[in-house]
């Protein structure tokens, strides 16, 4: 018995397994409604919330909406229990996921069938300040360089068009923009 083919993507979707060679379809009508809403009022600001609770050592539970807690920890080399990504790794994951969402949505909006979408991210940072307890001499804190390699295949779409899509998505990615531009940050006792 062959796997069913989805109408939106033309991809074969194995029954009860995650797709391996093709992305599961997104709701194109829902996407078009989001696009129309954004064009109707481009000044709308949405406030996102997260509650972070220290559980012990360097493990933290992050509560977002009504989801199960998103755990962030440190590796043993940074005195953690190695149960989850550390904060810097989580920020790379957020960047990769944001770019991937944008690539997928824009491809669907253009009518492209996405066969493969994988991003490899790496970032360089100096950790000698040890969160402000170590070497606090003048130096950049946080990522100084981040590299993202996109592996994206779309039926019948030339490399040049995918390259242009990557540049477009990077320009409009909320997380990518958080990485590259100053953000007003206020941290105070609650």
List the helices and strands and how they pair.
Elements: H1 28-40, E1 51-56, E2 59-63, E3 70-72, H2 87-109, E4 114-125, E5 143-154, H3 159-172, H4 174-180
Antiparallel strand pairs: 1-2, 2-3, 4-5
Helix pairs in contact: 2-3, 2-4
Structure, described:
The protein contains four helices and five strands. It starts with 27 loop residues before the first helix and ends in a 10-residue tail after the last helix. It is globular, with a radius of gyration of 20 Å. The chain is α+β, with helices and mostly antiparallel strands.
Tags for this entry?
190 residues; alpha+beta; two-stranded antiparallel sheet
Strand order of the largest sheet: 1-2-3
Which stretches are poorly predicted, pLDDT < 50 over at least 5 residues? Answer: 1-10, 12-20
Order of helices and strands: HEEEHEEHH
Coarse morphology = globular
Oligomer: single chain
How many H/I helical runs? 4
Please identify the structural class as seen in this structure: alpha+beta
* Mean pLDDT, all residues: 87
Largest sheet: 3 strands, antiparallel
**DSSP strand (E) fraction?**
15-25%
Q: Tally of extended strands?
A: 5
The level of helicity is 25-40%
State Rg. 20 Å
Distance between the termini: 60 Å
């Amino acid at each position: 018995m062959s796997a069913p083919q989805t109408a939106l993507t033309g991809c074969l979707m194995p029954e009860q397994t995650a797709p391996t060679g093709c992305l599961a379809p997104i709701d194109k009508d829902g996407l078009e409604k989001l696009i129309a809403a954004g064009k109707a009022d481009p000044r709308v600001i949405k406030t996102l919330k997260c509650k972070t609770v220290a559980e012990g050592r360097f493990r933290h539970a992050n509560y977002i909406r009504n989801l199960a807690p998103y755990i962030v920890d440190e590796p043993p080399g940074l005195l953690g229990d190695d149960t989850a990504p550390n904060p810097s790794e989580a920020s790379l994951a957020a960047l990769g996921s944001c770019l991937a969402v944008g690539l997928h949505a824009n491809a669907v909006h253009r009518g492209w069938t996405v066969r493969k979408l994988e991003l490899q991210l790496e970032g360089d940072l100096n950790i000698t300040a040890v969160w402000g307890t170590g070497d606090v001499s003048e130096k950049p804190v946080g990522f100084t360089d981040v590299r993202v390699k996109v592996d994206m295949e779309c039926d019948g779409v030339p490399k040049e068009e995918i390259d242009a899509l990557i540049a477009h998505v990077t320009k409009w990615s909320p997380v990518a923009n958080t990485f590259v531009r100053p953000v007003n940050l206020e941290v105070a006792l609650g």
